[in-house]
Specification:
This protein has a single domain, classed as HUPs (Rossmann fold). It is 50% helix and 12% strand. The protein is built from 13 helices and twelve strands. The protein is globular, with a radius of gyration of 23 Å. The relative contact order is 0.14. It binds adenosine monophosphate (AMP) and zinc ion. The site of adenosine monophosphate has 14 residues, from helix 2, strand 4 and helix 6.
């Protein structure tokens, strides 16, 4: 894609990155300035963080979250890393090692917790018991524990590495499926909710929301971030990548479509959704919920019941039936 002899739009030196969506070309140094400015702009426009604020960065080990961590530190935020291990074999191990390498490189603390240990159950059992797609179960549990741990770490804000491709793909999916309540909630900052019991909702912020995946990839490569590349072995059932591909086709033909789709949607929407209303607390874990149990505890309770049902010896009726069957 890059032409030899291409000149940087900012400094006129040799350029090695080209972004048709902005009609610009950059050298490594000017790319970094561009990326930082996009993140600063998102933080300021959407009122994500106060200068120097303590924030927990959710670190998966992929290029997006490592870039997020680097950028938050470079922009002066007190960003602590939090990584959840999923224990799904070599991919999980590579993701953990990448997160640890980044923590070492930044000289910052990385808190590591195991999702199966936090849930007390095997992820595959939880998926089977609930008859849901792996990604949807894993996503609900990750959100629940990232939120809980963020508050326990004494921060009220959790930053994730979601970027323009994630948000534009999700927007298209929500539009196609007519998920009005998700459309109402789609905004790069979601306000938190404090509760007296110390549980609650952390604020959720997405400082990379103005950056395309390809821009972050170029940045991660040029900064030589120790990211784990590759896909989660259990991501097969996810539909988001199809919507992202569809947006990419439009982007390829009409550069700028991706930004216009998402940023235009935000512009037309005009402002954030109303903050969450205080409701009840989950009977099991105390997390805010409008139901008796929060979404994560509903999954976990169903899995516990399922495991018990599997372990339980067949009841007396079943025994008689079996014996009868034997006699005949
Ligand atoms: P994904 O849904 O895998 O694209 O992840 C979106 C964002 O969620 C990442 O950029 C991270 O900020 C966060 N995240 C995903 N998986 C993990 C994990 N295992 N541990 C911590 N944060 C995660
Ligand atoms: Zn709960």
């Amino acid at each position: 894609m890059n032409n030899p002899g291409m000149k940087c739009t900012r400094c006129r030196g040799p350029a090695n990155h080209r972004f048709p969506q902005h009609n610009v070309r950059f050298c490594d140094a000017c790319l970094e300035v561009f990326i930082q400015r996009q993140v600063e702009k998102a933080i300021k426009k959407f009122n994500m963080l106060a200068p120097g604020q303590k924030v927990v960065a959710a670190i998966s080990g992929g290029k997006d979250s490592l870039a997020l961590w680097q950028l938050l530190i470079d922009l002066g935020y007190d960003a602590l890393g939090l990584h959840l291990t999923l224990d799904l074999g070599p991919f999980s191990q590579k993701s953990l090692e990448a997160s640890q390498a980044m923590a070492q490189r930044l000289g910052r603390e990385l808190v590591v917790k195991s999702l199966p240990q936090l849930t007390g159950q095997n992820l595959e059992d939880i998926v089977r018991a609930n008859r849901r797609e792996f990604c949807s179960v894993c996503g609900t549990l990750k959100r629940h524990f990232l939120n809980k741990l963020c508050l326990e770490l004494g921060a009220d804000t959790l930053a994730t590495g979601h970027h323009l491709d994630d948000e534009a793909g999700r927007l298209l999916g929500n539009l196609v499926r007519g998920h009005q309540e998700y459309l109402d909630q789609q905004w790069p900052v979601l306000e938190g909710l404090k509760s007296d019991e110390g549980t609650g909702l952390a604020r959720k912020v997405k400082p990379l929301c103005r950056l395309a995946g390809s821009e972050i990839k170029s940045y991660a490569k040029s900064k030589d971030l120790p990211a784990a590349y590759g896909k989660c072995p259990r991501s097969k059932g996810a539909t988001l990548p199809f919507y992202q591909e569809a947006v990419d086709i439009l982007e390829e033909r009409m550069p700028g479509t991706k930004r216009e789709l998402y940023l235009g949607f935000l512009r037309r929407k005009g402002g954030p959704p109303p903050p969450p209303r205080p409701g009840g607390a989950c009977e099991r874990c105390g997390a805010p919920t409008y139901l008796d149990l929060c979404a994560a505890c509903r999954l976990l309770l169903r899995a516990e019941e399922w495991v018990q049902e599997k372990k339980a010896p067949a009841g007396p009726g079943a025994d008689q039936g079996a014996a009868k069957g034997h006699e005949i």
